[in-house]
Write a structure and sequence with these properties.
Layout lengths: L1 E5 L10 H10 L4 E4 L4 H13 L4 E5 L11 H10 L5 E10 L7 H18 L3 E6 L2 H11 L6 E3 L6 H9 L3 E4 L10 H6 L8 E3 L23 H6 L1
Parallel strand pairs: 1-2, 2-3, 3-4, 4-5, 5-6, 6-7, 7-8
Length: 231
Protein backbone atom coordinates (compact mmCIF):
# COMPACT_ATOMS: atom_id res chain seq x y z
CA UNK A 1 0.00 0.00 0.00
CA UNK A 2 1.52 3.29 -1.16
CA UNK A 3 0.80 6.76 0.22
CA UNK A 4 1.23 8.81 -2.95
CA UNK A 5 1.19 12.17 -1.15
CA UNK A 6 2.62 12.90 2.29
CA UNK A 7 4.08 16.25 3.35
CA UNK A 8 6.71 14.71 5.60
CA UNK A 9 8.95 17.79 5.41
CA UNK A 10 6.35 19.65 7.48
CA UNK A 11 7.59 21.19 10.73
CA UNK A 12 5.34 18.92 12.79
CA UNK A 13 7.34 15.85 11.74
CA UNK A 14 10.82 17.16 12.51
CA UNK A 15 11.11 15.63 15.98
CA UNK A 16 9.68 12.16 15.31
CA UNK A 17 9.92 11.43 11.59
CA UNK A 18 11.50 8.02 12.24
CA UNK A 19 8.61 7.01 14.50
CA UNK A 20 6.09 8.29 11.95
CA UNK A 21 7.61 6.15 9.21
CA UNK A 22 7.81 3.10 11.50
CA UNK A 23 4.15 3.47 12.48
CA UNK A 24 3.18 3.65 8.82
CA UNK A 25 5.18 0.56 7.92
CA UNK A 26 3.72 -1.32 10.89
CA UNK A 27 0.24 -0.38 9.63
CA UNK A 28 0.97 -1.91 6.23
CA UNK A 29 2.15 1.11 4.25
CA UNK A 30 4.99 -0.11 2.06
CA UNK A 31 6.07 3.21 0.55
CA UNK A 32 5.44 6.94 0.93
CA UNK A 33 5.97 9.68 -1.64
CA UNK A 34 7.09 12.91 0.00
CA UNK A 35 5.57 15.93 -1.72
CA UNK A 36 7.78 18.78 -2.94
CA UNK A 37 5.85 22.04 -2.73
CA UNK A 38 8.58 24.68 -3.15
CA UNK A 39 12.31 24.72 -3.81
CA UNK A 40 13.48 24.11 -0.25
CA UNK A 41 10.74 21.60 0.43
CA UNK A 42 11.71 19.67 -2.71
CA UNK A 43 15.33 19.56 -1.58
CA UNK A 44 14.29 18.44 1.90
CA UNK A 45 11.98 15.79 0.47
CA UNK A 46 14.83 14.36 -1.58
CA UNK A 47 17.08 14.38 1.50
CA UNK A 48 14.48 12.32 3.37
CA UNK A 49 14.54 9.71 0.62
CA UNK A 50 18.27 9.33 1.19
CA UNK A 51 17.77 8.93 4.93
CA UNK A 52 14.97 6.37 4.58
CA UNK A 53 15.66 4.73 1.21
CA UNK A 54 13.63 1.60 1.93
CA UNK A 55 10.34 3.46 2.25
CA UNK A 56 10.47 6.99 0.84
CA UNK A 57 10.31 8.57 -2.62
CA UNK A 58 9.71 12.22 -3.48
CA UNK A 59 8.45 14.75 -6.00
CA UNK A 60 9.95 18.06 -7.08
CA UNK A 61 7.93 21.14 -7.87
CA UNK A 62 6.21 24.35 -6.86
CA UNK A 63 2.73 24.29 -5.31
CA UNK A 64 0.36 26.87 -6.85
CA UNK A 65 0.44 28.78 -3.55
CA UNK A 66 4.14 29.41 -4.27
CA UNK A 67 3.78 29.91 -8.02
CA UNK A 68 5.04 33.50 -7.89
CA UNK A 69 8.37 32.10 -6.61
CA UNK A 70 9.01 30.22 -9.86
CA UNK A 71 12.28 31.31 -11.51
CA UNK A 72 14.95 29.96 -13.81
CA UNK A 73 16.61 28.49 -10.71
CA UNK A 74 13.44 26.53 -10.06
CA UNK A 75 13.72 24.98 -13.50
CA UNK A 76 17.35 24.08 -12.83
CA UNK A 77 16.38 22.42 -9.54
CA UNK A 78 13.61 20.38 -11.14
CA UNK A 79 15.91 19.18 -13.92
CA UNK A 80 18.59 18.33 -11.36
CA UNK A 81 16.42 16.35 -8.94
CA UNK A 82 14.24 14.53 -11.45
CA UNK A 83 17.35 12.68 -12.65
CA UNK A 84 17.42 10.73 -9.39
CA UNK A 85 15.53 7.43 -9.22
CA UNK A 86 14.05 8.38 -5.87
CA UNK A 87 12.35 11.44 -7.38
CA UNK A 88 9.35 9.93 -9.12
CA UNK A 89 7.29 12.89 -10.37
CA UNK A 90 7.24 16.59 -11.16
CA UNK A 91 4.90 18.53 -8.89
CA UNK A 92 3.06 19.43 -6.84
CA UNK A 93 1.88 21.87 -9.46
CA UNK A 94 -1.41 23.07 -10.87
CA UNK A 95 -3.97 25.74 -10.05
CA UNK A 96 -5.62 26.72 -6.76
CA UNK A 97 -8.30 29.39 -7.04
CA UNK A 98 -9.79 28.65 -3.61
CA UNK A 99 -7.35 30.96 -1.85
CA UNK A 100 -5.54 32.67 -4.73
CA UNK A 101 -2.40 33.03 -2.62
CA UNK A 102 -0.39 33.48 -5.82
CA UNK A 103 -1.87 35.56 -8.65
CA UNK A 104 -3.67 33.44 -11.22
CA UNK A 105 -1.40 34.42 -14.13
CA UNK A 106 1.61 33.31 -12.05
CA UNK A 107 -0.11 30.01 -11.27
CA UNK A 108 -0.85 29.37 -14.94
CA UNK A 109 2.72 30.25 -15.94
CA UNK A 110 4.20 27.95 -13.29
CA UNK A 111 1.83 25.11 -14.24
CA UNK A 112 2.75 25.40 -17.91
CA UNK A 113 6.48 25.46 -17.10
CA UNK A 114 6.14 22.29 -15.04
CA UNK A 115 4.31 20.64 -17.94
CA UNK A 116 7.08 21.68 -20.33
CA UNK A 117 9.70 20.09 -18.08
CA UNK A 118 7.64 16.94 -17.60
CA UNK A 119 7.39 16.54 -21.37
CA UNK A 120 11.09 17.27 -21.81
CA UNK A 121 12.12 14.68 -19.22
CA UNK A 122 9.18 12.30 -19.83
CA UNK A 123 8.38 12.33 -16.12
CA UNK A 124 5.06 11.65 -14.36
CA UNK A 125 3.18 14.64 -12.94
CA UNK A 126 1.65 15.18 -9.49
CA UNK A 127 -1.12 17.76 -9.96
CA UNK A 128 -3.21 20.01 -7.73
CA UNK A 129 -6.56 21.47 -8.77
CA UNK A 130 -8.93 23.33 -6.51
CA UNK A 131 -11.80 25.51 -7.72
CA UNK A 132 -9.96 25.94 -11.02
CA UNK A 133 -11.24 23.22 -13.36
CA UNK A 134 -12.31 25.61 -16.17
CA UNK A 135 -8.70 26.82 -16.54
CA UNK A 136 -6.87 23.70 -15.36
CA UNK A 137 -8.56 21.18 -17.64
CA UNK A 138 -7.91 22.90 -21.01
CA UNK A 139 -4.23 23.36 -20.17
CA UNK A 140 -3.85 19.72 -19.20
CA UNK A 141 -5.87 18.50 -22.18
CA UNK A 142 -3.72 20.48 -24.62
CA UNK A 143 -0.57 18.69 -23.49
CA UNK A 144 -1.88 15.33 -22.25
CA UNK A 145 -0.86 13.32 -25.33
CA UNK A 146 2.78 14.30 -24.78
CA UNK A 147 2.83 13.54 -21.05
CA UNK A 148 3.61 10.36 -19.18
CA UNK A 149 1.44 9.29 -16.23
CA UNK A 150 -0.52 12.03 -14.47
CA UNK A 151 -2.26 11.98 -11.09
CA UNK A 152 -4.76 14.63 -10.04
CA UNK A 153 -4.11 14.42 -6.32
CA UNK A 154 -6.51 15.16 -3.46
CA UNK A 155 -9.55 15.02 -5.72
CA UNK A 156 -12.60 16.70 -4.15
CA UNK A 157 -14.40 18.02 -7.22
CA UNK A 158 -17.62 16.93 -8.94
CA UNK A 159 -18.60 14.16 -11.35
CA UNK A 160 -18.08 16.34 -14.43
CA UNK A 161 -14.47 17.08 -13.47
CA UNK A 162 -13.83 13.45 -12.52
CA UNK A 163 -14.93 12.16 -15.91
CA UNK A 164 -12.93 14.86 -17.68
CA UNK A 165 -9.77 13.60 -15.95
CA UNK A 166 -10.60 9.95 -16.51
CA UNK A 167 -11.15 10.70 -20.20
CA UNK A 168 -7.60 12.08 -20.22
CA UNK A 169 -6.36 8.80 -18.73
CA UNK A 170 -5.36 10.46 -15.46
CA UNK A 171 -4.96 8.74 -12.13
CA UNK A 172 -7.11 10.10 -9.30
CA UNK A 173 -5.80 10.60 -5.75
CA UNK A 174 -8.29 10.18 -2.89
CA UNK A 175 -7.50 11.46 0.62
CA UNK A 176 -9.10 11.39 4.05
CA UNK A 177 -11.56 13.95 2.72
CA UNK A 178 -13.68 10.91 1.84
CA UNK A 179 -13.97 10.18 5.57
CA UNK A 180 -15.56 13.55 6.34
CA UNK A 181 -19.26 13.07 7.05
CA UNK A 182 -19.89 16.74 6.25
CA UNK A 183 -17.89 17.36 3.09
CA UNK A 184 -16.87 13.97 1.75
CA UNK A 185 -20.08 12.04 1.22
CA UNK A 186 -20.20 12.88 -2.50
CA UNK A 187 -16.74 11.33 -2.89
CA UNK A 188 -17.98 8.01 -1.59
CA UNK A 189 -20.34 7.86 -4.54
CA UNK A 190 -17.92 9.28 -7.10
CA UNK A 191 -15.13 6.88 -6.21
CA UNK A 192 -17.28 4.02 -7.52
CA UNK A 193 -16.74 5.46 -11.01
CA UNK A 194 -12.95 5.33 -10.79
CA UNK A 195 -11.42 2.17 -12.34
CA UNK A 196 -9.14 0.37 -9.90
CA UNK A 197 -6.27 0.90 -12.34
CA UNK A 198 -6.76 4.66 -12.01
CA UNK A 199 -7.46 4.93 -8.29
CA UNK A 200 -4.70 6.05 -5.91
CA UNK A 201 -4.85 6.84 -2.20
CA UNK A 202 -2.97 9.33 -0.08
CA UNK A 203 -3.03 10.95 3.33
CA UNK A 204 -1.74 14.44 2.42
CA UNK A 205 -0.22 14.32 5.92
CA UNK A 206 -0.22 16.27 8.17
CA UNK A 207 -3.38 17.70 6.61
CA UNK A 208 -6.83 16.18 5.99
CA UNK A 209 -6.93 13.88 8.99
CA UNK A 210 -9.82 11.40 8.63
CA UNK A 211 -12.52 12.99 10.79
CA UNK A 212 -14.24 9.70 11.56
CA UNK A 213 -11.18 8.43 13.45
CA UNK A 214 -11.94 10.90 16.27
CA UNK A 215 -8.26 11.27 17.11
CA UNK A 216 -7.01 13.60 19.83
CA UNK A 217 -4.18 14.84 17.65
CA UNK A 218 -4.76 17.18 14.72
CA UNK A 219 -1.77 15.80 12.81
CA UNK A 220 -2.51 13.32 10.08
CA UNK A 221 0.04 10.56 9.42
CA UNK A 222 0.68 7.94 6.72
CA UNK A 223 -0.31 5.21 9.21
CA UNK A 224 -3.94 6.23 8.59
CA UNK A 225 -3.76 5.26 4.91
CA UNK A 226 -5.33 1.80 5.44
CA UNK A 227 -8.34 3.48 7.05
CA UNK A 228 -8.81 5.71 4.00
CA UNK A 229 -8.58 2.65 1.75
CA UNK A 230 -11.20 0.86 3.83
CA UNK A 231 -13.65 3.77 3.66
Amino acid sequence: MIDIGANLTHESFKKDIEDVIKSAVDAGVTAMIVTGSNEQCSRDAFTLTQEFPDYLYSTVGIHPHHADEYTGETEDLILELIKHKKVVAIGETGLDYFRDISPRPAQIFSFEQHIKLAIETQSPMFLHQRDSHPDFYPILKEHRDNLENVVVHCFTDNKHALFDYLDLDCHIGITGWICDERRGLHLRELVKNIPSSRLMIETDSPYLIPRDLKLKTRRNEPQHLPHIAKV
